[in-house]
Design brief:
single chain; alpha+beta; 2 domains; 5-stranded antiparallel β-sheet; 4-stranded antiparallel β-sheet; 26% helix; disordered N terminus
């Protein structure tokens, strides 16, 4: 999502009905439900060194600078008007949000228990269960040491339309806080240049499918409206009331720093396509479930349609109910693994009960340089690049971790519904889904293993060729992470700074 954000359609004014509760948009931090507008985003991870001084600065000088969802919503209309007037220059639109880890909360509010077991343990402790590689001592192999130190108490998200605007705001915030914090890790992501704007480093249009939020979103065709309590505390949809009243209008944030091995992935696609006898562009689309333009295979399975991919009125207007033989889109495809639209219906579970409670709102941004000619010719990554992955939810175990562990990393995920769904190909053979070929992680005793994915070769519109993709390595490598709670602005001004 950039300064010209992923297309969204927001209600002109909050709507309050029994189905659509009014949201406290002035209290919810701006990145949670809509996303801070950004061409650049600086992540400043910090340790609280002087608690009293930090609380004082938070209450008196920081909290009122934090960007609310109400402000972000107004900026969406400002950006729309800016674009409609033919303007292409970026607006500064500086944004600031803040979140705290479990260790940070213990410093600010010793008695706080947020009742989320994964948040309590922290991202590093949970990483092995997500499939992140580790050695014989249990140390995460690829993680940067700053994320292993247990010294991260919080993070500032500083966003804007220009690098200068972001750096100026970050400098101002750090000057206010002074010696009360120590910066542990500081890195800036940015949208990719030119025609690649809005695309992640593998080349696919990102952020195409976000859930709509009841009371906030005017949904595009095919975009499901989901109760806000799945993403923000204090509203319908959450499993129960928040354990602490000040958690209302707050959200859990997952951060994952994901390296992408772009030259290696491109070379693998070419090699595998030759082995399987399929066009490499089509093979890539079948691994993701969309063409690079964002057009879904479910609607255009044989060739890309760039007009469809860029049109939010069309690019999510589908489900998989009429593709139970995975002719159009493989079950293992990334978008089907992480959002199996109507696939569980066949086993008696509805989308509302089986899928909607697992959804998250994503707000990440790419980092690192474009692939150099030298890297391209050598098919080898020499400079780190990838995605600063960010998502929001009210239960880390039931949402983000469930998606990664029980769907992306589980070869038979679609057969694990209650009641179980035994998926079969049109010729009667049983589907062996395999791993998500993009984000799936397959480790045994901490060591990465090859992965398989079912049906990379299409059988559309007819055909019964059985095929399996053999993936020798992970092309996305987690190199750090942290779990945060992003409180309401009122909580920043009161409970957490008292």
């Amino acid at each position: 999502m950039s300064n010209e954000t992923t297309p969204q359609r927001l209600l002109a004014a909050p709507v309050s009905t029994p189905e659509s509760p009014a949201l406290d948009l002035h209290e919810i931090q701006g990145d949670v439900l809509i996303g801070l507008q950004k061409n650049f985003e600086r992540f400043v991870f910090f340790r609280i060194a002087e608690v009293a001084e930090f609380k004082s600065a938070l209450r008196k000088r920081i909290a009122h600078r934090v960007t609310s969802t109400l402000t972000v919503k107004a900026r969406e209309f400002q950006l729309r008007d800016h674009k409609m007037n033919g303007r292409k220059d970026p607006l500064p639109l500086v944004g600031l949000n803040v979140g705290f880890t479990n260790t940070g909360f213990k410093k600010l509010l010793a008695s706080a228990d947020l009742k989320d077991p994964s948040f309590d343990k922290g991202a590093a402790a949970q990483a092995p269960s997500l499939g992140d590689a580790f050695d014989g001592t249990g140390k995460l192999i690829h993680w940067k040491p700053e994320f292993l130190s247990n010294n991260i108490d919080g993070v500032f998200l500083v966003t804007g339309g220009t690098q200068a605007a972001v750096d100026e705001e970050a400098h101002h915030v750090l000057s206010i806080l002074g010696a009360s914090i120590t910066v542990i890790f500081d890195e800036t992501g940015q949208v990719r240049p030119g025609l690649e704007k809005g695309h992640e480093h593998f080349g696919w249009l990102d952020g195409v499918s976000q859930p709509g939020v009841k009371g906030l979103s005017d949904p595009f065709p095919g975009q499901r409206l989901i109760d806000p309590g799945h993403f923000v505390f204090g509203y319908p949809g959450q499993a129960g009331p928040p354990p602490l009243s000040w958690m209302n209008n707050g959200s859990f944030m997952v951060f994952r720093r994901l390296n992408q091995l772009v030259p290696e992935f491109g070379n693998f696609i070419l090699s595998a396509a030759g082995t399987l006898g399929v066009d490499p562009v089509l093979l890539g689309a079948r691994l993701v479930g969309r063409w690079k333009s964002g057009a879904p295979l479910a609607l255009t399975p044989s060739q890309d349609d760039t007009t469809l991919g860029a049109d939010p009125n069309q690019n999510n207007n589908f489900d998989f109910s009429d593709d139970q033989g995975e002719r159009r889109c493989p079950y293992a495809a990334h978008i089907r693994k992480t959002n199996p639209r109507a696939d569980f219906d066949q086993g008696g579970l509805s989308q509302e009960t089986a899928v909607d409670p697992r959804r998250v709102i994503r707000a990440g941004i790419p980092f690192g340089p474009e692939v150099s000619p030298a890297e391209q010719s050598a098919n080898t990554t020499s400079q780190e690049r990838g995605l600063m992955f960010v998502c929001y939810q009210t239960s880390i175990p039931n949402q983000f971790e469930f998606l990664q562990i029980s769907w992306a990393n589980k070869p038979n995920f679609i057969s694990d519904g209650i009641p179980p769904v035994l998926k079969k190909h049109p010729d009667g053979s049983v589907v062996k889904v395999g791993f998500d070929p993009i984000i799936g992680q397959n480790t045994v005793n901490g060591q990465p293993q090859p992965r398989t994915a079912d049906e990379p070769v299409p059988n559309y519109p007819t055909g019964n060729v059985r095929s399996t993709l053999q993936e020798p390595q992970n092309f996305i490598v987690p190199t750090g992470g942290a779990y945060f709670f992003v409180p309401s602005i009122a909580a920043l001004e009161n409970e957490l700074s008292a």
